[in-house]
Amino acid sequence: MNRKWTAIVPAIFGIMLTVSACGKEDAPTFTGSITEEPTYQDSLNVISPTAYNNVRGLKVEPGAYISIIGRESGSAYWKEIKRGALQAAVDLNGALGYTGDDEVKVTYNAPEDVENIDEQVNLLDEELARYPDALGIASIDAEACKVQFDLATENGIPIIALDSGNSYQGIQCTIKTDNAEAAKTGAYKLSDEMEDEGSVLLLVHDSKSASSLERLNSFKSEIEENHPGVSITETLYLDKMDDMKKEIAEDKNKSKKEDEKKITSEDLNDTDVVAYYLEKHPDIKGCFGTNITATQLGLKTLKQEDKIKDVILMGFDAGKEQLDALKSGDIKGLVVQNPFGIGYASVIAASRSILESGNEAEVNTGYIWVTGDNLEEESIQNMLYQ
Question: Most CB contacts within 10 A, which of 59, 67, 74, 261?
């Protein structure tokens, strides 16, 4: 399997994130005065354009405040984004010689639950009340924060987007994976594993964010245009689970006798929903999750329903559970993104916005395809986050 980071211009890259760096919550240290490259540099080298992989020339005023708001606080993926953002702050302050009150302050806040739009909006309100010099946000709902964005613009607070795009016209820069290319890779890898024949259950992390829609549309286009023997039987959105539970409860109750206890939507969990559609379509041969949560849901359901050997599972991101499933063969392949690079480049873009030095419309942070066959290779191991 080729070890290829996919960026704006295809290229072969070397070692990515080091295992020793993954998941650390300790404050990072500045390495700018040391000739040896820091362990995280290879995850920055893949960022395109290259202006977003370093702090050179960013003469931000002392005491500047950059606020980064993510979609979630608890998963390995978002912890790695936070780590990248905080490392950029350390490097920036080290390069400028700032200490104490003069330091550029970078904060990361996010909802505890990835789909909690209300909590993210509340966090955005709180951060805007602190009047940051720049703000970066990974919007759960691309349309939900227009009022807050208008307020930020009125107060001269530049906004960048990270991880997922945003439809707001005032966004100055978007830092993310090439979602369309990554999902296309997932679609043809799954089709190839299915020998270009059979039906697919597609699990999509939400129905509103730009990242989910980009991945969904690209996955579908690749299947429709290049794999005529493969079909997408069902597309399930994780933020629509409550509605599906109601529909499933109603359907199941139709077959119950009058004296039998009726079930309610509260009696069902997310795995019950996926299991319902697996039972409804027994010919499903492949399953794909568009983020870590969706992929883990597919894994949990297939194992619970004893279908893990019958349905080929692939998806996004590299949590511990998924890596274990790669080793056992329960998952056949994963699109692994570069969250450290996303966090780091977001602070660079925010700094450029503060300095009014101009930003690219989009910054590509790359991804890699990981399978059980290449999992143990050093260049793969060095970029996994758990």
Answer: 67
